[in-house]
């Protein structure tokens, strides 16, 4: 293993520059204006896989953005690891809040990253983490130290719903045969506190449109006499959380798995400093469902979040308009055993039911995903745990993350495979936000840890 | 008077083309991107006044957009009419809803305007109505039939708060001396039902900003545990109207003049067809304060309207962000004896008070204006009433409009002058909306009626 680490150390600067090149491509999958950039990014990932020594590399076209596939079979008798990651990124908006441009990576030191962090959209989510696997496999192959077979499936639609992944997986069951799925797209608690995510929330993402009058009106002439769709939308949104911030959608909690008090006590043992949390976010108080801690609110409870709202005049100055329409983007995070389809249906029914006379409501589902809990006693989990212990010097804590990687449930269903979520980022890395970053330490810690996983998983 | 009408008839096509030229200038005062267009429009108005025979025409610079002044003194002993109007217009957004471009005037027939209407931003509000005065004065001067002195004060900031008009008026008290102020910037009930607006609502326009965390967050990682500023803004907005749509801002109604039942009965005698109103707006039900009719809700009651809202991701597709900030533009229409400053202060205090822990709130006042009621027994009102009766064949009904022309209260205070609101538009002319229009009939009816006002006012 020393040879692998030596190789990594020797190629450190190149590994950094190659990630920078990848980060310069604005592969924003949600916005079709970036379609050619997304395609260029897929080609670049394929190229890097080939150069790393991976075989049968293919940029697989889909109805949306392509999926990059590649494999290296070292021994048909050895176990096979299927690496999943994504090369697409979130939109960079609001772009004026970036200290350096979103697609011009720059290294700056921060309090949490004293050795420097790479600032760029996708640095952590997920280009940096995904690329750690490419570089780790390159290091293992270059030194003749790859003890398992490896397959790569790197998609380009994770940030917009992975719409075409299900059909790709269904159509490639043989090619994707493996013993475990390995994903680095989650976080550890802190750089001195490794952890492994064992639960992912599901997702129901919807867009709503509330229509009042059939045209924008003069708010002086009609105001006070015609339902204003912004006011009505606000009232409808406001009613979704009751005074305890419990979600009022009928049937919303019916399928929620309730943890017993022992499980909740265990979960709350994870290090968490409320004052540091509030200070980091600049807030005077946390918020959430009564009766639950912050770790529980993000880990084991479903949520209802507004991701965007717009309507009427939003330009400079003032315009006295009573608008015809108001819109919102809403996402609900789901926990076992909620189902994305059911929750989307319950929301649609509820939202339509509570709409008052004088407005009409349209609900458009965007995408969804199922919640999942991964086992902590599998061979793969134990291999990941030992690998992290090796490089961090501490046994990792199993945690429940708040995010969603909807394809984990899909893989389990379609391929019959369990997943290990061996992430290397930090929650504070501003994922989906301006100034997203990824610690240089974290990037290389990922590259160094992955070979240990292969070693222990092969044993 | 026949000579005046003959002159109007003879120059009909030119009067139309000149208005078209004025409408082609995108004089959007709220948006500084249009600053040079606004200036160009002022020059054009000045030019038209000069050509009409008006003296001492001057484009008076202000700290914002210029005010066009001009006067014609025919006899120092004759009464003087001060015409106020505005050449600036509302923004054209949302531009994609215009059937023909906002600044390329086009004539189309509609159900309400079988003789055709001029579609363009500002056609009715207020270029078309303001220009009727220029053309009426031209017709009277050309035929030697102007029986009063006339002064014009045409401003360019009515749609963004008339910020610099007060200092102009205060600095030009002598120049602006007159016996009455005449404004055409309101509506009649219908083309066969003339009316004169005798009340204008005041205005308090504010912008609010709600800040949650100090940066945009990943809604999966932080959702459910940190106050979402969109959700909180929605809850705050929702709480402003109670279950009877009564406004809950503390002290909001304290100064509202309550009409007695006789006055309310009189007000409700104005022709109003609820079914036609709903059908025109495409709504299943009207909305508003319990216990009041639609005419009362827009005429004698104050309102709280959302003019715009925005926050988070509003682009294509989805983004799972918990945003740092959410914003709204809000206007409150005021009735006698509410004061704009007081209501703005009461709102700011209330909105700050109801903000929960976990967010901070900033309220920025945009502009305001005082409500006003004009007398129905003055010489000027009676002259306007007779003028409309002359050209419409029916005595006009005194009404209470819902809109605001804040400068009416200003004129009363600074110049000691009462105003006559002799408007010629229709509420259905899509003021402030896409596809704003002004009936060709209404335009020429204005030009024909104004000379009768001068005649009767001089008698």
Distance between the termini of chain A: 14 Å
User: How does CATH name the architecture of the largest domain in chain A?
Assistant: 3-Layer(aba) Sandwich
Read across the widest sheet of chain A, the strand sequence of neighbours is: 1-2-6-3-7-19
The backbone outline of chain A, from C-alpha atoms, is globular
Number of domains of chain A: 2
Q: Using CB atoms under 8 Å apart, which protein chain pair has the greatest interface?
A: A-B, 100 and 100 residues
Report the mean per-residue pLDDT of chain A as an integer: 95
β-strand percent of chain A reads 15-25%
Name of the CATH first level of the largest domain in chain A = Alpha Beta
* Radius of gyration of chain A, CA atoms, in whole angstroms: 23 Å
Number of DSSP-assigned strands of chain A: 21
What's the tally of helices of chain A?
14
Largest sheet of chain A: 6 strands, mixed
